[in-house]
Each structure stands twice: as C-alpha cells, then as structure tokens.
Design brief:
By secondary structure, the chain is an alpha+beta fold. 43% of the residues lie in helices and 19% in strands. The chain has helices at 13-32, 46-49, 55-59, 79-88, 133-147, 163-172, 177-189, 195-206, 210-222, 226-235, 240-262, 308-311, 326-335, 355-370, 384-393, 404-409, 430-437; strands at 36-37, 43-45, 63-65, 71-74, 97-106, 118-127, 156-162, 269-271, 285-291, 300-304, 319-325, 348-352, 375-377, 398-402, 411-416, 422-426. Bound molecules: histidyl-adenosine monophosphate.
Length: 438
C-alpha cells in the first residue's frame, strides 16, 4: 500500500464536491467584479521564483532539474507567473487589466495545522492602476468572496496595512532600502517570536539603540486608526519632503477607507500596521483576511507590487492583487456550518429484464442522457429484486421498468420512488413522459 505524501490531500467525491462548490463561488464572484480568467503552467523555471518572492518561499520550493537539464520548480504562488504573462503582452493589454485564476500551489512547508504542501488558491490582480482605486476594487472583491458563502462581518476581518509608511518611517530612522526590507521581515515575524529574539534580529540594523527602536516599532504596530497613524508619523522626525510624502500617503489611505465605507464594507476592515507580509515584492498597501475569533490561520493575503513585472524584464507596470487559500476557508465554513450538504443522486434508475428488454432500455437510456437526465442502471443484469434495491438507494426520483410484459405491450412502467405509485407509459412516449415529470 502506498500512502499519500505528507501535506497533500486526496479528494474523494465528497471532498471534490466541496472543492467544486468553492471554485464555483469564486468564479462567479470574480465575474461579477469584471475579472477575466487566465491560467499558467504549474511547473515554471526556478529563476522565476528565485529572489522574486523572497527567501522564505524559495526555501519552500519543490524544485528539481528536468531531463533536459533545466532547473524547474512547482509554483508556490501565482503572482510571478502572472507577472511573466502580463510582462510579455504589457503593451497590447487594455488597462486596467483585471484577471483572476484558480490553481494548485506547492510549498514545502513545515507540517502544521492549516498549512499544506499542496493547496488551491484563488488569485485576483489589477494591473496598470497605480492609485488606491485598485485596492478598493480588490478588497471589495475579497470581502464578496467570503459573503458569497454566507460569512458576515461577525466572521471576517480584513486588516489593512502599508509597507510604504513603514519605509517612510524606517528611512527616517536612517535605514537604506535593504535595511528597510530586512527590518520588515523581522516585523513580519514579531507576532510569532519572543521579544528577545526580535531584539537580537534588530541589532544588526540599529546596534545599541535596538531596544529603543523596538519600542517605537511596537507602537506603530499597535496603531489602529487613520488618526493615530497620522499623529504618530507626523510626531516622529518627519520633516520637509518626508513630511509631504507622508501627508500624501495619508490622503491615499483616506481614499481607500472612504471608498470601502461607501460600499458598505466598513464593518469588515481594520487598520493594523502589524501586517507587513512575508513576500518580498510588496511595495505599498498590504492586507490580510482572518476569521474574527482568530482561531484559524490567514484566509487571504495581498497587496501592491509595483516593481515585480519590471524585475521580471517586463516594462514598469503598477500592480496589486490578492490570494485566497482553500484550506482555511474550508475549515471556517465547516465550523460555521455553511457548507451545503452534498446529495449525489441520479434522476432516473432503469430496471431491466432479459436481453431484449435491455436492448430497448439501452436505447432509451441513451436518449434520456442526451436530453440531459442523469440515468443509472445496474451494469450487470442482476435479479429484479436486487435492481429495485439499487434503485431505492440511488436517490433517484423515478424508476423506469423494462420487463417482458411491458416489452410485449410496447409500454414501460414508471415507478415514482418517493410515493411508490406506478403507471404504464407507451414506449414511444417515455422521453416526453420523463420531461413532463421533472
Ligand atoms: P500568501 O499570503 O502567501 O500570498 O497566500 C495567500 C493565501 O494562500 C494565504 O492567506 C493562505 O490562505 C493560503 N496559503 C498560503 N500558503 C499556504 C499553505 N502552505 N497551505 C494552505 N494554504 C496556504 C500569496 O501567495 C500572494 N501571491 C497573493 C497575491 C496575489 N499577492 C498579489 N497577488
């Protein structure tokens, strides 16, 4: 016996039904928001991910050398592939580009609850729109992706944050771009690591003043409103150009938040600057969605990445997007009893006698299936009694019986499996009869 690999899942029909339900809902939400579906190969060249997604993801790659000597990797996320596709056609695409995809992603993660090595992700991205209007549309879609399943603002919170503001602030502290990036990846892990460990990691950037800066960083992480954000930033060593930049940024924040409020989505969002995102390519607004009780891991994450397409040798192209995983959403919908009960039933079960009766039945089975009905029958011609048992357990509403008597009378017996009433139908009228009955 072979076991499946750790972190991978099998999908028996019941699980496939749930997965289809998620995908159907995701697709219909994306279409309502005017996003077009795209796809790309699951296997890409290793270089596409190297240094583009950040060290953490590169360490988690399923990668190998193929028979042609190419270094390849299974995609850990969709964004680099999307950037590759968009970069190749950047000049002919009508902007803003609004695209979505649903696909399997692979990350060699440490085994833990809610973290798999293969999972599905819904991705939606807007390219060519540099202003916060793109984020309004994306976050509105993100919320719709949850409400479409029956989740409400009591279940979900979307935390909004801003790597630009962190950059302004850290640059004001004298750090260069690499330093800012380094400190942000320390901040990304702050909620999960001890204060001593964080302090150790900050020392290379701030030296003896690390604990002073840790206190400041902790204050900024606690900011939970636009007013607090503005107050903190303006109070902290912001002068001249830096001050103008911060004020402009705060105005963009206002556009974002008031847009979402106007859409009636204010109850879902929260300013929370502790979110900085683990992926290295993010440049501006970033956000993550969680269940409000904090029981599960992140449901979704996203943000702006204005330089990725350029870095992958396309032209400069503004970009922002989001990814929603299937696993946490599945857990949350199960906990809230929002997954529909899956009923896998036939419409019609056909019961047949001997060879001649089977022949007549097969002709009608083909016609009924052509007409769109789900028709089942016992593959092996077993005894009548056994076929009736199969009919009852199939969940079908109707049994059509092709016995020798019926064949001689040129009729078919139709049995309503719910109330057990029966009627004779002329053989030539079977398809019309079924159409009328359903
Ligand atoms: P991410 O935060 O790495 O972002 O992943 C987005 C979501 O995918 C997570 O919130 C989580 O639900 C799910 N996910 C990630 N890793 C795993 C895992 N190992 N097991 C189960 N679920 C997981 C991105 O991937 C970005 N590329 C999203 C994006 C699109 N940004 C811009 N456009």
């Amino acid at each position: 016996m072979f076991d499946r690999l750790p972190g991978f899942r099998d999908f028996y029909p019941e699980e496939c039904a749930v997965r289809n339900h998620l995908f159907r809902n995701w697709r219909s939400s994306a279409r309502r928001f005017g996003f077009a579906e795209y796809d790309a190969p699951a296997l890409e060249s290793l270089d596409l991910f190297r240094a583009k997604s950040g060290d953490e993801i590169v360490e988690q790659l399923f990668s190998f050398t193929d028979r042609g000597g190419r270094e390849v990797a299974l995609r850990p996320e969709m964004t680099p592939s999307l950037a590759r596709l968009a970069g190749a056609r950047a000049h002919s695409l009508r902007k803003p580009v609004k695209w979505f995809s649903i696909g399997e992603q692979y990350r060699y993660e440490r085994q833990q609850r809610g973290r798999l090595r293969s999972f599905y992700q819904f991705n939606a991205d807007i390219l060519g729109e540099p202003g916060p209007e793109a984020e309004i549309e994306l976050i509105a879609l993100l919320i719709h992706l949850f409400t479409a399943f029956g989740l409400t603002e009591d279940d979900i919170v979307v935390r909004l944050s801003d790597r630009d503001l962190w950059f302004f602030y850290l640059q004001g502290m004298g750090l260069d771009d690499d330093g800012c990036g380094g400190v942000l990846s320390v901040i990304d892990k702050m909620g999960r690591e001890s204060e001593e460990k964080t302090l150790e990691k900050l020392k290379p950037y701030f030296g003896a003043r690390a604990s002073h800066f840790l206190a400041k960083i902790s204050m900024l992480r606690e900011v939970s409103s636009l007013e607090e954000m503005e107050e903190f930033l303006l109070a902290h060593s912001m002068e001249g150009e830096a001050r103008v930049a911060v004020e402009k940024r705060v105005a963009e924040w206002r556009t974002l938040v008031s847009g979402l409020n106007a859409m009636g989505l204010g109850g879902f969002i929260e300013v929370n600057l502790s979110i900085v995102r683990g992926l290295a390519y993010y440049t501006g607004f970033v956000f993550e969605a969680f269940d409000r009780d904090g029981k599960f891991r992140a449901l979704a994450g996203g943000g702006r990445y204005d330089h990725l397409i350029e870095k992958l040798s396309g032209p400069q192209m503004a970009a922002a997007g989001l990814g929603v995983g299937d696993a946490t959403l599945w857990e949350l919908l199960t906990a809230r009893k929002l997954l529909p009960r899956y009923v896998d039933a036939a419409d019609i079960f056909v019961v047949t006698g001997g060879e001649a009766e089977r022949e007549a039945a097969f002709r009608d089975i083909g016609r009924l299936r052509e007409a769109g009905f789900r028709v089942e029958y016992s593959l092996k011609p077993v005894a009548f009694g056994k076929q009736f048992k199969l009919a009852a357990s199939s969940g079908a509403r109707l049994a059509l019986i092709y016995g020798s008597e019926e064949l001689a009378n040129e009729t078919v017996k139709a049995r309503n499996l719910a109330d057990r009433t029966e009627q004779e139908v002329p053989a030539a009228r079977v398809i019309d009869f079924v159409r009328e009955a359903f």
